[in-house]
Amino acid sequence: MKLKFNIVDVFAEARYSGNQLAVFHNAGQLPDAEMQRIAKEMNYSETTFIVSDKMKDNGYKVRIFTPEREVPFAGHPVIGTAYVILREVVKKPIKKIKLNLEVGQVPVAIKYNGDDPDKIWMKQQEPVFGDTFDIKAVAEVLNLGPDTIDEKFPVQDVSTGLPFIIVPLKTLNDVRAARIDRDKYYSLIKGISAKAIFIFSPETYETENDLNARMFADYYGIPEDPATGSANGCLAAYLSKNKYFGDENVNVRVEQGYEIGRPSLLYLRAEDTDGNIEVHVGGRVVMVAQGEFI
Questions:
Q1: Please, what's the b/e burial string for 228-256 (b: 16 or more CB within 10 A of its CB; e: otherwise)?
Q2: Considering the entire predicted model, what is its pTM?
Q3: Residues 176 and 208 occupy one common structural domain
């Protein structure tokens, strides 16, 4: 059975930047184990499988795999897969696409520059704010001193579909210096839902950006991710809830991936309306390759 696929760079302002994604078409006949083996073969942070190129329940069913396991939701796979569906399946300008994921239906909006897709935005689930963590314990996981963490804000588990431990650091140098102690990392995440750590600071490489961030998730087979839409959705909610920029409204640019040579740019919006935080994450996508598995 030949299996068509595309490779795209997501949250990329140029080719060969952002986060790589392999998208396979009409993959509904593949056993789960085969999908997992293909994701391991591609060895990107995630690989997606469009179950069918035909819509069902007003959306396209999509499954997402890291090299180690299937996940119910992830950000750059949503943005990248929506782009591939737009270009390779729909083949005409439309304003919205819905993806049916394990976590539920995720709406995606496409903004155009003339006739060409420009930014693609996904609306994430309403955030859930979970446990807070001891600063010293988290700092040890990151091989940092506790004074590098900004004590004005909590270290907290936040989820908009996939949970992350959000860690506010003070400086760009602190972000750059972070190194995961794997033993302490696995001890920290044992028995809790959040398996990934997302660190950020208000200092950036590029002056036009607002925050710099890194994401670590050995549990999913991802030592470090170049661009993480799901984590940035959690960050947007966190920034809103904690009034990080002074109020609940968030409209920022987040750079990620610079430390591993894959500079990425994510656009975050969040708004708190009567205690309900609505989160949107957007970015650009570049088509890189297409082919077939034989």
A1: bbbbbbbbbbbbbbbebeeebebebebbb
A2: 0.93
A3: yes
pLDDT digits over 59-88, tens only?
A: 999 999 999 999 999 999 999 999 999 999
Three-state SS at 170? coil
**What is the β-pairing status of strands 197-201 and 96-101?**
unpaired
Same domain, 108 and 231: no
Please count the CA atoms within 13 angstroms of the CA of 189 that sit on its side-chain side. 20
Q: Which residues, 6+ apart, have CB-to-CB distance to 190 below 8 Å?
A: none
Q: What is the CATH number of the domain that holds 68?
A: 3.10.310.10
DSSP at 202 = S
Q: Treating both helix axes as pointing N-terminal to C-terminal, what angle do 229-241 and 75-84 enclose, rounded to 10 degrees? A: 120
Where in the chain does DSSP place strands (E)? Answer: 3-10, 19-24, 46-50, 60-65, 70-71, 96-101, 104-113, 116-123, 128-132, 156-159, 163-168, 197-201, 211-217, 222-225, 250-256, 264-273, 276-283, 285-293
Those residues of the chain that have pLDDT short of 70 are none
Q: Is there a single domain that holds both residue 254 and residue 134?
A: yes
Residue 52 tokens read as 């069918």
Q: Which domain holds residue 202?
A: 126-279
Q: Where are the alpha helices (DSSP H) in 115-244?
A: 135-141, 172-177, 182-189, 229-241
Same domain, residue pair 142 and 261:
yes
- The pLDDT of residue 294: 84
Rg (CA), the chain: 18
* Of the candidates 294, 286, 266, 223, the residue with the CA atom closest to the CA atom of residue 121: 266
Residues 83-114 have pLDDT tens digits of: 999 999 999 999 999 999 999 999 999 999 98
